[in-house]
Every structure is written in C-alpha cells, then in structure tokens.
Amino acid sequence: MVTVDQVMSSLKKVVDPELHKDIVSMGMIKDLSINDNKVSFTLELTTPACPFNSEIEQDVRNAISSIGVSDLDLKVTARVMEGRSISLDELLPGVKNIIAVASGKGGVGKTTVAVNLAIALSKTGAKVGLLDADIYGPSVPLMFGLKDSPQVVDNKIQPPVSEGVKIISMGFFYEQSQQAGIYRGPIISGIIKQFLTDVNWGELDYLIIDLPPGTGDAPLTVAQTIPITGILVVTTPQEVAMNVAVKAIGMFNKLNVPIIGVVENMSYLQCPDCNSQIHIFGKGGGQKISQQYNVPFLGEIPLHTQIMEGSDIGKPITISQPESLQTSAIMKIAKNVAGRVSVIAAELKQSEESENSDSENDKTIQSGSNPEAEVKVQTTESKNVI
Ligand SMILES: Nc1ncnc2c1ncn2[C@@H]1O[C@H](COP(=O)(O)OP(=O)(O)OP(=O)(O)O)[C@@H](O)[C@H]1O
Ligand SMILES: [Mg+2]
Q1: Residue ending a domain, choose from 60, 78, 96
Q2: Ligand at shortest distance from the CA of 303
Q3: Is residue 187 part of a domain?
Q4: How many A from CA of 143 to the centre of ligand 2?
Q5: Which residues line ligand 1 (CB under 6 A)?
Q6: Best-predicted range by mean pLDDT (109-123, 147-161, 243-257, 342-356)
Q7: What is the per-residue pLDDT across 299-322, written as a single tens digit (0 to 9) for each?
Q8: pTM for this model (two decimals)
Q9: Of residues 124, 89, 126, 357, the one with CA closest to residue 229
Q10: Burial tier of 383 (Cβ tally within 10 Å: 0-12, 13-18, 19+)
C-alpha cells in the first residue's frame, strides 16, 4: 500500500510553472487521505484564474499514477493569496489584492480593460470589486449600464453589483445631468479615500481600480493611502502612447509600487475579409516597454467595433460576445494578471517570512508599521515626482 510519504514526495516533483516552486512547499495539498490504495486530496491553487490550472492538474495526476496509484479522488479548488501587506493596512482588511489600472495617456482603453478584466476574473469564480477613481470623467457606470445611486446602510455605501462585480463610481453621485465634475486635488483625494473606506467592499479577492490618465492626484492618493498589489499599465502600440506609459511606470517605481505588467490595447484590426491582422497604430509598443523596463507583457487586445459598442450599450464585450476572439484575448490577459498577482503574493509571503525569522529586522518592521509613518515616507518621496 502506498504511504503518505510516497504521495508527498511524488507531488513535490510537481512545480507551479509560474511560482517556480513545488506544490507541496506552496501548501497547495490539503486533506490528504489514503484508504486501501485509494488516494484523495484537494489541490488548492493560488487563484481560480490560474493560467496553468489544467497543466498542474495533469502533472498531479501523472505524479500519482507514477507511484502505482490508479484510484485518485482529486478535488481542485482555489484560494487567492494576499498580494499586499494587509497587516499594515487597517482600511481594507478583507481585500486580498488591489490592482490599479493606469496609463500615461488618456483614451488608450484603461476603463475598457478594467471593466472587462473585472468581469473576466469574476467569471472564473473570484470575488471582485471595481473602484472608478476617475472623479472628473467617470465612465464605469455607463459601461455597465448602471444608473441608480447606491444605498447607504449603517453609514456604509453599498456598492451596486453587476455581472458579479461590486462597483463604485463618482458617476453614481452626479445628478442626472451631463455635467462634468470640477474638483481640486484635495477633494479628488478625499473622494477616493472615501471610496476606499466608506464602501462596504466586504471580502474581495481582487479590487480593480480604474485610474484616470497620467500621474496626477488620483494615482498618488491610491498609492499613498493603501498598500496595493501592483499596477497594470495599459498602452496602445504607437510611440506617443508608449512614451507616456513609461512615465507612469517611472512614477509607480518611485513610489515602490510593483508593476504587474503591460497590456497593449487596440493592437491590431482583424481584417474581416482576408483574416490578416492590420497594425493600424504600429506594432509591438507594449512588447518594447516590457523589454526596456523589464516588466511582463500580459497580452494584446484587438481593435474591434464590438468592444466599443459593448461599452456604449452598457454590456461589455465579455458579456455581450462571450465566445468572441476579443473576449478570449481578454480572458487570457485576466489569467496572466491573476498569475502575476500570485507571483507577487508569493514573493511578499516569502519576504515577510524571512523578515519575521530575523529578530533584528522584526524591530524595524514594527517601527515601520505605523500607517502614518508609511504615508509620510511616501509623501516625501512623491514630492520628487511632482
Ligand atoms: N480594443 C478596442 N476596440 C475598440 N474600441 C475600443 C477598444 N478599447 C477601447 N475602445 C474605445 O475607446 C474609447 C476609450 O476607451 P476607454 O474609455 O476605455 O479609455 P480610457 O483610457 O479609460 O480613457 P480615459 O483616459 O478618458 O479614462 C471608448 O469609446 C472605448 O469603447
Ligand atoms: Mg477611463
């Protein structure tokens, strides 16, 4: 009869292709039991959107059959890892990861990416929220076809839920007019802080923040108010967009916020007649940024009228055309994003563990764990940025 040790050492040979660690050390094997050569356990992945889930599952099955077990009862589940230092953060203790979507230039498709990314992650089974940090020109409610103002219960704003995504946006609070918001910097910061603290986000695996373009008050407030997992940079292929995208990367680097990766939007037009790809805005801008700044390239989204129309009618493409090539490009990006977030989370866990094991470092952490001190350090640094 096979033993627990044999099972565990065979599973130790299965390495998560993204985390580059074996699944046993990563604590992914749960509830192992052996009964008359029947082996049962749960494989707990680091995200339901794991880009390698079928590959890992197959490797697990192969590993178990390699030790002569033919009767395997395998359950595959997922528990998203925390990709930010929640211990330092009193504001959003139930939110495991915060992904801010940024760009240097306006109109490159940040909101389109943020909205469809949120839906795509939610479709995989993750708990997802979307915070529209574009206070002047909020477009998230329009893209979801939402109009009603949120309810307030026990002094907390209840975020409307659409397609499984909890949403907050300044767009919900404007009167029914087309009026643009006119706010000074401190008010912008105040509203964003309120969206972080006064909204009943509950438990979330991923909170996506749709930032306005550039390196102004909103991105700074987000980066300085809460620890975030990382930034997703959206660009279009042409030089002018790339050059400003790089500025956004520079700003977040100065603020010590990790870059999750680069997404290239409006990459090409798929010719409906000849099926070839037409690179209207040039080719490879996202890839160039990725190589120059050593940040992962997470995929490209074609230019397609259905993407624009879906947003305009309040039914994003991932809902209106779920089987389309455009949606599968976005689903692939969502999986790559989730995979990268797991890598950042694993690195964070490892560095926290090594810091904890070192008593000298421990003291440093404690003195740095005052959230006010944290903000202060970053504010000083931000002066260089501005
Ligand atoms: N891949 C695409 N194909 C076709 N249209 C697109 C695509 N991506 C975005 N669009 C359209 O381009 C316009 C701008 O997109 P979006 O609002 O997402 O950009 P943004 O970067 O958030 O803009 P802003 O800087 O103003 O916040 C919208 O009309 C949107 O529907
Ligand atoms: Mg936008």
Answers
A1: 78
A2: 1
A3: yes
A4: 10
A5: 103, 106-112, 134, 137, 139, 212-213, 265-266, 301, 303-304, 307-308, 311
A6: 109-123
A7: 999 999 999 999 999 999 999 999
A8: 0.87
A9: 89
A10: exposed
